[in-house]
Amino acid sequence: MAYNLKEIIAEKPSRFTSGHRMCAGCGAPPVARMVLRALKPEDHAVISVATGCMEVSTFIYPYTAWTDSFIHTAFECAAANASGAEATYKALKRKGKISEDQTTKFIAFGGDGGTYDIGLQSLSGAMERGHDMVYVCYDNGAYMNTGIQRSSATPRFADTTTSPAGKVIPGKMQSRKDLSNIIANHHIPYVAQTIAVNNFKDLYEKSEKAIYTEGPAFLNVLAPCPRGWGYNTEDLMQINKLAVETCYWPLYEVIDGKYIVNYKPKNKLPVEEFLKPQKRFKHMFKPGNEWMIEEFQKEVDRRWEELLNLEETTNKEQE
Amino acid sequence: MNINSNTPMEDLTPGGEIYNSGNAREFKTGDWRSTKPIYLSDKCKQCGLCFPVCPDDAIPVGKDQKRTDFNYDYCKGCGVCAKVCPFGAIAME
Amino acid sequence: MDIRERLSGNEAAAIAMKQINPDVVAAFPITPSTEIPQYFSTFVSNGDVDTEFVAVESEHSAMSATIGAQAAGGRAMTATSANGLSLMWEMIYIASSLRLPIVMSLVNRAVSGPLNIHNDHSDAMGVRDAGWIMLFSENNQEAYDNLIMAHRIAENKNVKLPLMVCQDGFITSHSIENIELIEDDKVKEFVGEYKPDEYLLNKENPIAIGPLDLQAYLFEHKAQQALAMKNAKKVILEVAEEFEKMTGRKYSFFEEYKLDDAEIAIVCMNSTAGTTKFVVDSLREKGIKAGLLKLRVFRPFPAEEIAKALEHVKAVAVLDKADSLNAAGGALFEDVTSAMYVNKKQVPMVNYIYGIGGRDTKADDIESVYRDLQEIANSGNVENPYRYLGLRRK
Question: Which of B1, B3, B6, B17 to mutate against chain C (most C CBs within 10 Å)?
Answer without folding.
Answer: B17
